[in-house]
Amino acid sequence: MSQTLSNSTSSSPVSALSGPEASGLPVVPEWRRALNKFLGHRGLFIGSVILGVIVLAAIFAPWLAPHDPYVQNISQRMIPPIWHEKGTWEHILGTDKLGRDYLSRLLYGARISLTIGLTAALISGVIGTTLGVLAGYFGGRTDAVISYIITTRLALPVLLVALAMAALVGGSLEMVIILLGLLLWDRFAVVARSTTQQLRDAEFIASAKVLGASTSYILIRELLPNILSALIVVITLEMAHAILLEATLSFLGLGVQPPLPSWGLMVSEGKAYMFFQPWVIAIPGITLMILVLAINLVGDGLRDMNAPEGRN
Amino acid sequence: MPQYALELCDLSRHFQLKNGVFSAPTTLKAVDGVSLRIPPGETLGLVGESGCGKSTLAKMILGLLPPTDGSVLVNDQVISNGNRFALAKQLQPIFQDPYSSLNPRKTIRQIISLPLQLHKVGDKRSQQASVKQMSDLVGLPERLLDQYPGQLSGGQRQRVAIARALILKPSILVCDEPTSALDVSVQAQILNLLMDLKQELGLTYLFISHNLGVVEHLVDRVAVMYRGKLVEQGTREDIFRNAQHPYTQALLSSVLTPEPSLGLPELLDDSAWANAS
């Protein structure tokens, strides 16, 4: 007993002096604090769980899907989902008018939606951020020209232009991605421009200039990390936007072409059966809504997480 | 040894102010024909009221703003775009606001070692060694090196800024109101640190301030600026005991004393010097 006591008293002052424990406050590691914040934010937590499930479903679609999403079976047409009287466990979510398994098509459709959302948001993110940062940092004539381009872009109705272009060049997965990537950069540009303007005259930028850092170093290494949190929020918004637009284009027949299982296309194909087999359009419609909701919840949550709290 | 560490020859900076479409633009002379010489090892205090052009002058010396006219010589070399990079090793700034002068997304270690990386001084190991050495010198505990600026106090941040300014071993520091964003007890610590560093490293300071108490405590010579012009310069004793220019006299008489019974200082009428310059 006395030995343990003397042991603890002799060792504690040494350790107390060597680390940040000297203050007597409990030390919470950085990742732990971030995790607590993440778990404490209900919207972010729910959003990430849903989004995570959908992403996993998309990645593992070949293993999860009970059937081949392209195989047609005319004798098994329009089987209702399992909660209907006539539903069978063979096709949990039923089949469509060509007898293709709906669950399998839904799982493969998640791949299409997520691919389009992410790549289109990234393409427009690169375009918009580049333009916005250049306009915000250099100001003057550069800003005037880029602002004019942004205004021009904002004056274009996205859906109309997308429809016109898709009608001209024909719809396909790659076409939709490129088209949306080239159309959805405006919000990135506006956000990047205004955040850059706020930071342009910060003294840490001046200090890097005095040190002789090149303009590209200042923009990429000093400025960009500071506006990234704002841009990540925009990425999530534009991802949701792109997914919805893809569904719209596919619904109108100008986006992803059959037999690819896109959710928008599934809604479109089901619209003739809307009154008697409502689940044909309800299932992809609700899934689409849940995905967009989850992405927006994550975006909102990330914005809250990045709100300045001491580390500013 | 150069004759002057820092020499300003007839330095001017004018801004064109646009007054709408129909009237001609007016010219604001932020800095108007300032000539200054600072011999190596001297501390020159540049004082003047807010908006008199002190910070514009500092920006031109640092090369952040091209002068309209005149030139800046650092260790007898004229600053130009060609030798900007080389001169960074001789002249470094300490900014006013330690809250905006450190990149919030970088650790203190990254911030202090940035000048070494940009100028490719030594390898990674020697860079880390000199970061450690420099943080010792400015009294920054080593455990703070992996923190972010947001986790530091104002005084600690200013120590980081000083360490970053000194790590390339410059001979001249341009301090633009380095303590005005700090509270009074921390101000004294930072000023004492600057003085100790001057002794230890033989630095030359251009010390810009509107706090006359600080200037009197620190500097060898004083230059007084008013509306973009230097109205008076001299040794500390000359200026503080025997000011000639009416603006300097007014500036000195406006200093608040810590003696509560004396009340507020009586301000002189500015008509006495407004036209004199």
From TrEMBL, chain A:
Q: What is the lineage of its organism?
A: Bacteria, Pseudomonadati, Pseudomonadota, Gammaproteobacteria, Oceanospirillales
Q: Which UniProt keywords apply?
A: Cell membrane, Membrane, Transmembrane, Transmembrane helix, Transport
Q: What is the native source organism of this protein? A: Marinomonas aquiplantarum
Pfam families annotated for this entry?
A: BPD_transp_1, OppC_N
Where is this chain compositionally biased, Low complexity type?
1-18
Q: Which family does it belong to?
A: Belongs to the binding-protein-dependent transport system permease family.
Q: What is this protein called?
A: Peptide/nickel transport system permease protein
Q: Which InterPro entries match?
A: BP-dependent_transpt_permease (IPR050366), MetI-like (IPR000515), MetI-like_sf (IPR035906), OppC_N (IPR025966)
Q: Which residues cross the membrane?
A: 43-65, 112-138, 158-184, 227-256, 276-298
UniProtKB/TrEMBL annotation, chain B:
Q: Which UniProt keywords apply?
A: ATP-binding, Nucleotide-binding, Transport
Give the Gene Ontology MF terms in alphabetical order: ATP binding; ATP hydrolysis activity
List the Gene3D superfamilies: P-loop containing nucleotide triphosphate hydrolases
Thylakoid keyword on record: no
- The record places domain ABC transporter at 15-252
**Entry annotated with the keyword Phosphoprotein:** no
Name by which UniProt lists this protein: Peptide/nickel transport system ATP-binding protein
From which organism does this entry originate? Marinomonas aquiplantarum
